[in-house]
Amino acid sequence: MKKIVALLLSFVMLIAFAACASKTGPGASGSSEEEKTSANTSFPEGDPAEYSREYWEEKYPGENICPFQIDENGVERNYYWISGFDGWNGTFESWLSQPFNWNGWHKTEDGCIVNKDETLKITDDWANGDEAMSSYCTVTTEKYDKDNAGNQK
Q1: CA distance linking residue 114 with residue 44, whole number of Å
Q2: Rounded Cα–Cα distance for residues 142 and 123 (Å)
């Protein structure tokens, strides 16, 4: 049974790596028209340069920068990750400790993954690893009420 689970997890990681494979040709630098139109001009706190793929490509040359979005109150904000980076295991929780988490997402005492001001939480399917990270995925959120956090899980 353990071998089957290990093989299944290996397969899932292989798929995640393949989804983040280097692209060639037009739009490979992340400057496609689709990516430009999905960007939001009303950014949360953080270094505005960190919103761009180019920033991360310059900071980590030779690495394959993988984009994803977090749906924050109906607005998809761009974030990035590198597969295999700093103990990356393909889950949203492992992304929290990476430098790509420039906007203060963190885990609370009650186990929820929330934004900096603790008004949004990552939905359970992403937080518990049922959904695996891949390029261009959209991580969903829901309202978080820290006073009733125990009732939200």
Answers
A1: 14
A2: 6
The number of beta carbons lying within 10 Å of the beta carbon of residue 70 is 21
Using alpha carbons, select from 31, 44, 117 the residue that is nearest to residue 75.
44
Q: Residue 69 forms beta bridges with which residues?
A: 78, 138
Tokens (6 digits) for 17: 């790596």
Residue range 12-52, pLDDT digits in tens: 555 555 555 444 333 344 443 333 333 434 444 556 666 78
Render 57-104 in DSSP notation, one character per residue. HHHSTTS-EEEEEEEETTEEEEEEEETTSTT--SSHHHHTTSTT-TT-
Judge residue 77's burial from the number of C-beta atoms within 10 Å of its C-beta, 0-12 exposed, 13-18 middle, 19 or more buried: buried
